[in-house]
Amino acid sequence: MMLEVKSVSKSFGGLKALDAIDLSIHNKKIVGLIGPNGAGKTTLFNCITGMNPPTTGRIIFKGSIDLVGKRPDEIARLGMARTFQNIRLFSDMTALENVMVGRHCRSKTGLVGAIIRSKATVIEEMKIVKKGVELLKFVELMDYANELAKNLPYGLQRRLEIARALATEPVLLFLDEPAAGMNPQEIFDLMQLIRMIRDRGITVILIEHHMKVVMGICEMIVVLNYGIKIAEGSADEIKNNPKVIEAYLGKEE
Amino acid sequence: MFLQQLINGLTVGSVYALIAIGYTMVYGILEFINFAHGEIYMLGAYLGIIAIGLLTAMGLGNSSAFLLLAFAFIFAMVFCAFYGVTIERLAYRPLRRAPRLAPLLSALGVSIFLQNFVMVTQGTRNKVFPQLFAQNGFDLGNAKITYIQIMILVTSILLMVGLTLFVNKTKMGKAMRATSQDQKMAYLVGIDVNRVISVTFLIGSALGAAAGVMVALYYGLVNFHIGYTAGLKAFTAAVLGGIGNIPGAMLGGIILGLVESLGAGYLSSEYKDAYAFIILVLLLIFRPQGILGERLKERS
Amino acid sequence: MIKNKILEKSIWALWLGLLALPFMGKKAGILAIAILLVILLLPLLNGLIARFGISVSRLNFLSSSANWLKTNKKMALLILFSFAAILPLFMNRYFVDVAVLCGIYIVLALGLNVIVGLTGLLALGYIAFYAVGAYCYALLWTHYHINFWLALPIGTALAGVFGVLLGSPVLRLRGDYLAIVTLGFGEITRIVLNNWDELTRGPNGILGIARPSIGDFIIKQPIHYYYLILAFVVLTIFITTRLEHSRIGRAWVAIREDEVAAAACGVNVTLMKLLAFATGAAFAGLGGVFFAGKMIFVSPESFTFMESVMVLCMVVLGGMGSIPGVILGAIALIILPEALRQFQFYRLLMFGGAMALMMIIRPQGLIPSQRRKMELEEENG
Ligand SMILES: Nc1ncnc2c1ncn2[C@@H]1O[C@H](COP(=O)(O)OP(=O)(O)OP(=O)(O)O)[C@@H](O)[C@H]1O
Ligand SMILES: [Mg+2]
Q1: Whose atoms come closest to the Cα of A35: which ligand?
Q2: Is the ipTM of this complex over 0.90?
Q3: C76-371 belongs to which CATH class?
């Protein structure tokens, strides 16, 4: 078991954005997290990645590590990476540098090392660049390596954000609406990319509103509505689940 | 001793409160610290002196002290209101969509500019505010409250009551509150946000000017760098009350005035100016939402 | 159409003149006319500069020399350095003194650039760290006869520690709050220096600090100080450049760009911010020790809020995050006022105006920072 979310709740003032969510995520799968707007999907990501800790509940990583109370950077180091619904790149850095920042938690040059540029530093820096280049190639952005992130087209920014997340060497990758704003061709490429990421042995959890993406690549789908988990299962099970249909189409009188 | 410090503290505190309102109103709407606001207060103090000088030059110097003072108030408040609006229009509005640092630095530049503008045009030496009222007053036990102090307290209260009525009762006031809650929403429901912002600067600056005139009257002396310290203290008051919150700014000003005056009386008067900063620092670290404020929204 | 524009500009000029009326009297009229002339002529001037800019870029030798600079960075640096090294030989004492001042401010501005320019933390009380360095040497000398060279690392480290102490409680505050709190700390420092008579001798300051010496050779001529500060400047440039292009520098810039995303990438935001504060403060400390050794006198007067603002302006004017920009900013802001000595009175006036104007027309500064482009072909092979 990779990750267990145990009765996690999150309140914002009076609003219960998450209500006793239970969730188990297994190794090397692509998991879809869906639900209407405001269902609490992003909030769940925020709870898991430490950006906005849950009000109550526990989140257990690899069977023993409790993530609640850990800082986002500690969680990243443990092997969880994410992208954001409204892209958050380092806009005035180049594409390559964005990915290189992702290597931060896997490298250790300190102040002194950086100043004297010791042999260890030089080697480490070379490895960082190498890994960055490898990842840029992986997401097919090598042509843009020296381009400032803010100058990339939208679809490529999403891919760059994925590359940056991959740079932290995650075992779990959280993608928040990766296909948003993409055209059909880009979406097709993205689905390819996500499968390739899974084949690298990384578990992918993605929030998506494009049903084609979700139904196309997810081996398991979780449905949230008003902060409550209303269904869980394979694409076919979800498609035919009356609760899910009701949540999306509204109750028919 | 205690009573005396209380009276002095209330007097100074109500002046801080008036300046603090300007910080708080602007912050409420633009989420931006208007560094130049302290200078508006300084300009107000000078304008008060200039106004009375003007009347004297016109041979009206012997009219009743109240008339002179009323003219000084109106003169200073009108001009400072214009200053505030103009500064917003020229130095802040073009930067509304810029990164956060930009308007702050621009405001810093404006503040330096105004200080030195006054220094260049009015000289470096202290200016004396003509003594309009005798320094006497009532005895309260072993403390004394002067007429000037009474006048400052009364004027401040009137201005604050007026402001509260304006914000709560008029259409413009309601538009202001709506804008400070949610600018985008206010725009969508048809509020002219630019006008609201202009009015905010207008009112805040006029109140700052009134504070300036009162301080000039109270201490009798003015120079071009009083805006900096007073501005910082008033800002402290605004934070103390929860920035963006108008009654909070009033309360914060009074509290700060009392702390300073009692601290000077009982602890050490040399460190009088440091009290405000120490309060400010502690406050921002431990309770940034202030006394009346809510926790600041996190940007998402 | 054009008439309307002129009318609008005239109204603005008239309005500004009117606003200045109570303070300037009749001279406000002259001001209004001057403003009108300036805003009418500004577009013309702009056009001229633009045309000049185009014609300049056509000049082959300029673009080729720019290319040469890019490819021969080391060479260019060497030339620049040799220039700086022989410069004082051709200047009189006064100019050398000004150059020394430039050097001090370059160190300060580069230090502040780490905090404001790279990490994006607006610190307004920066000069307090400078004061820590200066008073550190002053006190160490007067009480324990600790010499300049020993005081140098102590003062630098102490300022760094101060940076951490001040930084740790306030770094989670939002941008403008951080600005105010650091400003408050700066003011508290100055007030304490002013009033703690037993230790600092208050406003009278501390006199009789020893000049630095190497063996029997005492550094006392401006030119001696020039070479000393030149060494510090080179050291500062070296260290800040190395840091900027390291793992740590990247984390700083990432924090400036997006704190949340940086944390998600595994950057320990608090730690990195503290490191930035400590580093920036340490350079101020270094500058402070030098300052005390140069002036052989320190008093609270040298550490006012205006000084903090001045250093900040150097960073902003030069280009936040850009090392050459910040150096240029420091030199410009020291030289200009000296050159404008006869306008002494108007110095800060223009300064404030220019600062606001700069934010509006060229917020990225004189030499905007540029991310380093990598030559990637080698890695591919
Ligand atoms: N920081 C916050 N403060 C207050 N309320 C919040 C905050 N973040 C989210 N919410 C509220 O929590 C609820 C769930 O939000 P969330 O962003 O998780 O929805 P979502 O499922 O991601 O929706 P979408 O598909 O629109 O992205 C919403 O009602 C939202 O308004
Ligand atoms: Mg969402």
Answers
A1: 1
A2: yes
A3: mainly alpha
